[in-house]
UniProtKB/TrEMBL annotation:
Organism: Lactococcus muris
Pfam family, one: Chorismate_bind
Catalytic activity from the UniProt record: chorismate = isochorismate
Family: Belongs to the isochorismate synthase family.
Top class in the EC scheme: isomerase
UniProt xrefs under PANTHER family: ISOCHORISMATE SYNTHASE ENTC, ISOCHORISMATE SYNTHASE MENF
Keywords annotated in UniProt: Isomerase
Protein name, entry field: isochorismate synthase
NCBIfam families with a match to the protein in the record: isochor_syn
Keyword Isomerase: yes
Length: 378
């Protein structure tokens, strides 16, 4: 496909997003580690994996579970999509790649509108019920760890303003991957710190990210590095990713476990690296998802439990998504610290890994802290 390159430096890059109102499909992707922003707009076509090389970037997503239940998440994800226009901004360059005439782009500042909203959270007693069943599952030996999640609905007096929320997600979350996928009047967005798999040439990298302490806790980072419950939760993820990598390649490099510091929480983080071999980024994604940082261990039993007992549909929450370039390189994150916006409704998601030594109230509180990523952007 022939894309023209047009030099364009926007002072307010979100103006590119705003230049394509509904029904334009759009993707926003800001890698704050590389300080690279890509905004893709207007679907050109759905792509088969072998066709990826024909487009500057494609957007890849797959739902958390293979089957998606209910109305809310219908038609979101499980596709590879090429777009007509890409606005690309790196530390040194800024341009558009386009295969269609561009609309007028007004380089206007985003109005940082705040929203007044009401919360419709399920009762704490609902969490307690789920937690009890989960502990029974662990005690019976079916599972060792399950990552349970909550969906909390926030209703605003005015429609949620995606640009303002994205702007604040970028400002508040250095180190994270800020993403948005807009389709049919719905926007799924968030600021995820977790790379499922990143492919650069013949290298792949994956984050084991599990184990959490609030930033508000004094010495939280030091406590986390020594906390046996969190270390167990974390090690399950490291071992599983290692095992999965070794199913395809002969060597894996496991870096030292460290602390990832985010705005509201600390996490335990271990980076694993391997050779990509002949496997594509999508092969690796399908092979690794869901890690026990999002599903549980053993995986099948944990997923069966979640399907049977979580009341909400996960859709793209905790699911793999990202951009892949024409060389097959890119970063697939798991879409946590995320929410689905639809007009005046915001469905926000947060989960936490639960093992035998967990505490019901502490895990609930952890999901509330994780929800702050979204709430502080509203
Ligand atoms: C499932 C989520 O977080 C995962 C990532 C980091 C730490 C986690 C934890 O400590 O439980 C979770 O595994 C979420 O934010 O919704």
């Amino acid at each position: 496909m022939n894309y023209r390159r047009i030099n364009l430096k926007l002072k307010h890059p979100l103006a590119f997003w705003s230049a394509f109102p509904d029904p334009s499909e759009r993707v926003f992707w800001y890698d704050s580690q590389k300080q690279t922003l890509i905004i893709a707009s207007q679907r050109l076509t759905t792509v088969q994996e072998k066709g990826i090389k024909n487009y500057p970037y494609v957007f890849y997503s797959q739902s958390f579970f293979e089957q998606v239940k209910g109305e809310l998440w219908q038609d979101m994800g499980n596709e590879i999509i090429a777009f007509k226009h890409y606005y690309i901004q790196t530390k040194t360059d800024s341009y558009v790649l386009s295969c269609d005439p561009l609309p007028d782009i007004k380089d206007q500042e985003t109005v940082l509108q705040h929203h007044s909203y009401e919360e419709e959270a399920p009762e704490y007693t609902e969490w307690v019920k789920l937690y009890k069943k989960l502990q029974e599952n662990i005690t019976s030996g079916k599972t060792v760890k399950i990552v349970a999640s909550r969906e909390v609905k926030f209703t605003s007096l005015t429609p949620f303003n995606v640009e303002a929320i994205l702007e604040r997600l970028v400002q508040n979350n250095p180190g994270a991957f800020i993403f948005a996928y807009h389709k049919s009047g719905k926007t799924f967005l968030g600021a995820s710190p977790e790379i499922l798999v990143q492919k650069t040439g013949n290298q792949v990298l994956s984050y084991a990210l599990a184990g959490t302490m609030p930033r508000a806790l004094e010495n939280g980072a030091q406590l986390l590095l020594k906390d046996s419950k969190n270390l167990q939760e974390h090690q399950i993820v490291v071992q599983k990713i290692k095992e999965k990598l070794l199913e395809k390649v002969s060597q894996v490099k496991i870096e030292q476990t460290d602390i990832m510091t985010l705005k509201n929480v600390y996490h335990l983080q271990t980076v694993l690296k391997a050779k990509a071999g002949e496997h594509s980024l999508i092969d690796w994604t399908k092979h690794l998802h869901p890690t026990p940082a999002l599903g549980g261990h053993p995986s099948r039993a944990a997923l069966d439990f979640l399907r049977a007992n979580e009341k909400h549909e996960r859709g793209l929450y905790a699911a793999p998504l990202g951009l892949i370039d024409s060389q097959g390189n890119g970063t697939i994150i798991v879409a946590i610290r995320s929410a689905l916006l639809k007009d005046k409704a915001c469905y926000a998601y947060a989960g936490c890994g639960i093992v035998a030594a967990s505490d019901c109230q502490a895990e609930f509180d952890e999901t509330k802290i994780k929800l702050k990523t979204i709430l502080e952007a509203l």
